[in-house]
């Protein structure tokens, strides 16, 4: 019998009416017969999945009456697959809910992404600082600005956790992006002022993650508007008080992408703020990420949800050969509009196949998603658009 090292990528198409999830569940329960290294489920283009299988696996699959046909996948290798990802990363690359059962296994989910995710983009983490020496950052984290009288050190751990979700090797969304630590205690506006100044110098596409907030502040809101004017994307945590985020700055700013938190079962995290200023939800409960002293830690909150979206925005920017002039308008205010011309087939911010539970009225019931399913590139995506049968509740970003 061939070893798993001999496995190649195949596309398995099931007969009409056969549930992909049911088929895969049966496949994975008989582990002696099958041991696929990676599985990519198709949601729209085909009824089936792709995976790495040995020749013996393929022969057994061919003998299954529910299988319509199997062929080698010549384009799937253009995408990266990770089978030891957090549930948050796994959820970002699926429309359908995670098939988790009663007791989910931590960090055993599949994450699918473009290897160029985040390349050439800086994410400014305005927070408690970042442990830039953590090996999970692979040298892609550096210090930017520290308030007078404080050291270039994260003494709290919060900022390190946030940065890990955005860019770290195993636990991060945009694995080629860079993080710049901006340590703040109280002087948020001064910190944002420095970010604008530094981006003017570097001339690099940039995202600001603000997993922090406080009472209504016109000064903070105005500073976020200045970031927008400087073509810098701002992502803000909605807040953790289970109340309307309209009284929280910078979450209430129309010039920030404001992120609420959900859990592994597609339910609003109990503490997440809500309301009309919340633009989108992302994984925020029991999120495993980098921590101090080269460790990891599980935390919950909209602070954990926001860097999932910051990573996705860096991902989006990095995949553009040329960023249109009006990109930033869509990246901020219009990011959740139903715009039919996508920037790139491998990233959308769109509605989940099933609505999140316990989301208050007048709150956007949307879940961040990176559109991994389109392994055939632009053509398949455009065909779906042209047929008027795009993703359920699709919210594409484009010009």
UniProtKB/TrEMBL annotation:
Fetch the Gene3D superfamilies from UniProt.
Answer: Peptidase S8 propeptide/proteinase inhibitor I9, Peptidase S8/S53 domain
- Name the SUPFAM superfamilies on file: Protease propeptides/inhibitors, Subtilisin-like
Presence of keyword Magnesium: no
- Note whether Repeat occurs among the keywords: no
Q: Which UniProt keywords apply?
A: Hydrolase, Protease, Serine protease
One cellular component GO annotation, for this chain's record? extracellular space
Pfam families linked to this entry: Inhibitor_I9, Peptidase_S8
- GO molecular function list: serine-type endopeptidase activity
What is the top-level taxon of the source organism? Eukaryota
Q: Which residues does the UniProt record annotate as the domain Inhibitor I9? A: 9-75
Any single GO BP term: proteolysis
Catalytic residues, per the record, are 127 (charge relay system), 158 (charge relay system), 303 (charge relay system)
Provide the Peptidase S8/S53 domain boundaries: 118-322
Instruction: Give me the segments passing through the membrane.
Output: none
Q: Which PANTHER family match?
A: CEREVISIN-RELATED (PTHR43806:SF11), PEPTIDASE S8 (PTHR43806)
Give the UniProt family note: Belongs to the peptidase S8 family.
Protein name, UniProt field: Uncharacterized protein
Q: Which organism is it from?
A: Psilocybe cubensis
